[in-house]
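User: Structure tokens for both sequences below?

Assistant:
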Amino acid sequence: MQSVGTAASLRGVSAVLRRHRPSITIVAVEPAESAVLSGGPPGAHRIEGIGIGYRPPLWDPSIVDEIVAVSTDQAQAMARRLSREEGLFTGTSSGANVVAAIEVGRRLGPGSRVATLLIDSGLKYLSTEVYRREELPEGGASVNI
């Protein structure tokens, strides 16, 4: 399971995994607001590094079994959750990967294995809405999320 920017990571990793396990299911992840790989129109989104608005030159639809679209809001919320709960300081494309992995894992059920790569860092998102300070409803105190 991998977000698609240039499609290089998805293509390279899937080729190696299929050599070792031909029955593996490969899932591509794209922004719901610009689900071009799924046949939708290009659109504005805030998941940096993926969903370029057209099919990237390295995209090969024959290597994927499924495409999962994740919204910017879901990707940002998951990036914050990964930081807060797991200590993984990631960006929005990694958040999108985890949202899609959870969705696929729930569908597959117990005993299934789902893997994804968290390639980006949260450093470039510190000044964005992903990690911006938010007000807590119960006390009004400001904290980093």
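Moving on to the next sequence.
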Amino acid sequence: MTRTFTALIHKESDWYVADCPEVGTVSQGKTVEEALANITEAAELYLEEFPLPETSHTLMTTFEVTAYA
């Protein structure tokens, strides 16, 4: 069975850090592609031990806040 998850990727120094909020895994890579491959592997390994129940897809949206300097 194949499921779709979210990867949130941001850059920290020379690394791209990937976070999968649905599974709770985090990984990194020198490129976005490497970070995505690593988070995919981390999520697969995690789900082998701790399967998630069937649920609906996560809703992702954006919002704005006022930033004070």
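User: Anything stand out in the second?

Assistant: The beta strands are 8-12, 15-20, 25-29.
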